[in-house]
Amino acid sequence: MSTSTPLPASTTPPARSRPRRDRSLAAMIWYRWIQAVVSLLWMVGAGVRASGRKEFPRTGPVLLISNHLSHLDVFMLGLLLPRPLNYVARSTLFVGPLAWLIRSVGGFPIQRDGMGAEGIKETLRRLRNGGIVTLFPEGTRSPNGELGPIKPGIVALATRIQAPIVAVGLAGTYEAWPRHRSWLRLHPVHIHYNPPIAPEELKKLTPEQILERLRAELLDAHARARAALSNLR
């Protein structure tokens, strides 16, 4: 993800004690149905586990960042969380029935080379409503299952939101559906959620240090997910 468009000067205020819904009741029912179907399919057919959820914020805005291995990632990240997720997805995916599906589970478009003003506004709006917004800082799926370079645009967003950042590591989705294969196969998956990074922690760091910190968090979460996955097989 790259955010070359300047961000609004104002920061994202903490969510209200009784935040507005970030989706309608019908949309929430649909999200839960998709969550239940995918959970059942993967738990029965392959196995899926998560760790680190005890420290995941129960309420309020959260910026969730993750490594990106597969098209499956957007479904797996929220599979075992009680709170619904919102997803940032590149605009080229919003075509035909796929566009409807992505939007129906909380996705919204950004330009491939940057979030753009509308993408930024929508991210901030959903955070203000107390939602969880999910980003893939690599900007694209990994070609080999390893964490790629982090787009520097994440720094501008991270320093302006008043919300904790949670780094997540995914393991197993690359084996299930890598970018070079056109078909999906069931494979065990593990998701690890690192402890939240408070906004105050990042204010003390330079942009370069923030980028290094976020990359280190993603590497750590990915390593923990991989280690746990070896015990799941």
TrEMBL record:
Single GO MF annotation: 1-acylglycerol-3-phosphate O-acyltransferase activity
Keyword Magnesium: no
SUPFAM superfamilies tied to this protein: Glycerol-3-phosphate (1)-acyltransferase (SSF69593)
Domain Phospholipid/glycerol acyltransferase stretches: 62-173
Ranges of compositional bias, category Low complexity: 1-15
Example GO BP: phosphatidic acid biosynthetic process
Keywords: Acyltransferase, Transferase
Keyword Transport on entry: no
Pathway involvement of the protein, from the record: Lipid metabolism
Domain of life (superkingdom): Bacteria
Ranges where the record places region Disordered: 1-20
Residues passing through the membrane, by range: none
Any single Pfam family the record assigns to this protein: Acyltransferase
Protein name, entry field: Phospholipid/glycerol acyltransferase
Native organism: Isosphaera pallida (strain ATCC 43644 / DSM 9630 / IS1B)
